[in-house]
């Protein structure tokens, strides 16, 4: 260790002991430092980066179930073992959820000890009273309270349960069967509406049929746009779809564009539908709260140019002239980039662009794995969570489809302020996915977004692009290398891909071929806050 006056502390076995300005440490000297981990919520010092080369660092993890059980037994020898075991398992689940950013605080053995000591000292008190002493503060956080109560009750720890569990209704799966119809297309049309909504396979009469031709439906050819009425989809081959005459394609495209314009007018003039909005909002309320916790603890990333002193080369440091005369070599200074200390507040906002996939495959395969519904829920989650964080994060949302690589949905500095505006955003996304032409602009959309943010990256603390995609790239011959190249096209912007849909193991294979830590597979929206936390943390360390 180099002291401020130039002297150096070395181990007693160092060969330089006895030389001028060398201070040997005592052979029995030991310094044990117990430190909180850095970052939210403990806000401890980042000792590893500052002093890691001077210490033998040991990370103290939570004890195992058996060890924690023995520890709690020592504090509550009269507390039934079954009660202790239920507490240990509940707290273990709390920590898992904290690691996934679904709870704001990593409940430790300390809280469990408080409960056990209460039960030991006041045996006539109920378990509910003992637990309340620890968790009363969390009653002001409705999302955390709901999660805590749910887990405590799962482990048989009696507490008052005054909340409603909301579960997303099960969505039916869809089987794709390829077949050749052997029939030609003639003229695109909407088709007749079946009042009974019976399934129709093949043919060119009914709207909402599958595997047919000319009419609006799924899995067919020559129709003006997609229309899902909840039936099992029969899919004709890609070769048969490619053989459609150009004049039929043109007529179908014109009819689809007209229907899309009419749909946009309908959305703009529609009244707010709370029931529809709640279908997408209520299932993600816990994730909204978790994401807001993450956003509230964001830290500065941008580096600062400073003078690094005690260097062996560079500009002569006037303050070290005397040391230079006496033979000291580390008397120079250099300009270098210094990372901010962990916990440093942001001076400039972060820049985030969310790129959503509104291609035809999102609508087409929504009945297969609910990928479009999941994406719209994710957008609602982001819009609700980012509310009131305008000064810390500048967010905009764009989309891509077979029509264009950049479709603006939410402009920067114009986040929707109420549920009606947020509902209009996801309705527009749904409509675009239904009426757009087939095709894929994923790579072009990523490259365009990275380039757009790169031009103003110096104005922001950090610039991040997050792409939501259904991983349906093989169909269009797009290699993962092209995706990776677009994501790495500018060093000042970091791009990440989150795959929320997949046919087979496409998403998994894509993630494995992208740069490490840049691709994620997310079939469960509860993982979105954890993924975003990892993205923000990874970007912070770069």
TrEMBL record:
Sequence ranges assigned to domain VWFA in this UniProt record: 351-535
Bias (Gly residues) ranges: 205-223
SUPFAM superfamilies: vWA-like
Top-level taxon of origin: Eukaryota
Amino acid composition bias (Basic and acidic residues), ranges on this chain: 186-197
GO CC, alphabetical: cytoplasm; protein-containing complex
Location of the region described as Disordered in the Swiss-Prot/TrEMBL record: 172-229
InterPro entries per the UniProt record, alphabetical: VWA8, VWF_A, vWFA_dom_sf
PROSITE patterns, alphabetized: VWFA
UniProt name for this protein: von Willebrand factor A domain-containing protein 8
Organism: Cacopsylla melanoneura
